[in-house]
């Protein structure tokens, strides 16, 4: 079932187009990652879906419904990009106040359990005006999930958080997802997106340049399996032959004293390389295979320069 469906969604500010006609579907149960450089249009896209701004053209539906109906508002959770909390309220007071505004005041127990999930259990009675940036972010996530929404929008959920908090929020996102909730998130932390997201879209110039699972994104790029082989002594008589065979298997061969690095475009080539070592009677001690990371795919997409090709 499609939870998000956009058709040629378009936004311009003045005469400047920012989101240039995006068609996107997100299914129930996905953790969807939305990537792009600063200013690519990610927040603008989310703000259209969450009803904060109006599209200039195109349409979208959430849960099959068009327009920001009360039902849609109940079923989505939105984390503010930056949080300007009312400083005189405590974290608990803030959550209760917001939930009351949306028509379903959360109990103290519910607020405490959500504050615990985001790692703010010790700060429940502290005034939000005294919160650090990372704590405000956590409170923003608590705000997004306090009413048990089915679809949660998280705009850069972990930016500015310490390492322990990042791990905690990753666990929370996985937990929410295992409860059947759909998460739509943006992040500049590519490692985080690679670890968490079931599907990823890379935005470029207001459009989606690439979209898919990590495996699908990798398949768009050829020559991206990097193979490192640690080996024993190569008999002098075999060096030329081995080099020739290795070069036939892949490209960009780097040969050091006891290891070679080569990039290949198919895993079959790895078997060919191992055969070449055997035929030249060279022992293999270790084979490391590195597929393209999201960071590499992202850089490749944005700049057109692959950083993984061996020279
Ligand atoms: N209210 C506005 N009026 C005019 N231009 C705007 C407005 N909001 C955003 N923009 C412009 O739209 C473009 C996209 O901004 P947006 O915030 O959507 O990018 P983003 O991908 O979320 O960036 P970041 O990663 O830095 O958060 C930017 O060039 C920005 O300057």
Describe this structure in words.
This protein has 311 residues and is an alpha/beta fold. The protein folds into two domains: 211 residues, P-loop containing nucleotide triphosphate hydrolases (Rossmann fold, 3-Layer(aba) Sandwich), CATH 3.40.50.300; 79 residues, YebC, transcriptional regulation domain (Alpha-Beta Plaits), CATH 3.30.70. 35% of the residues lie in helices and 28% in strands. It has eleven helices and 14 strands. The strands form three sheets. It has a six-stranded mixed β-sheet with strand order 6-7-8-3-9-10, sandwiched between helices. Strands 2-1-4-5 form a four-stranded antiparallel β-sheet, with helices on one face. A four-stranded antiparallel β-sheet has the order 12-13-11-14, with helices on one face. Strand 4 and strand 5 form a beta hairpin. Helix 4 packs across helix 5 and helix 9 runs antiparallel to helix 10. Bound molecules: adenosine-5'-triphosphate.
Helices, strands, pairings?
Blueprint (H helix, E strand, L loop, with lengths): L1 E12 L2 E12 L3 E5 L6 H8 L7 E6 L2 E2 L3 H6 E3 L12 H11 L6 H10 L15 H13 L5 E5 L7 H16 L3 E5 L3 H7 L2 E6 L2 E6 L1 H6 L5 E7 L7 H11 L1 E5 L3 E6 L3 H12 L4 E7 L3 H10 L8
Parallel strand pairs: 3-8, 3-9, 6-7, 7-8
Antiparallel strand pairs: 1-2, 1-4, 4-5, 9-10, 11-13, 11-14, 12-13
Helix pairs in contact: 3-4, 4-5, 9-10
Bound molecules: adenosine-5'-triphosphate.
Overall form: elongated
CATH topology of the largest domain, which one? Rossmann fold
CATH class of the largest domain: Alpha Beta
Average residue-wise pLDDT:
89
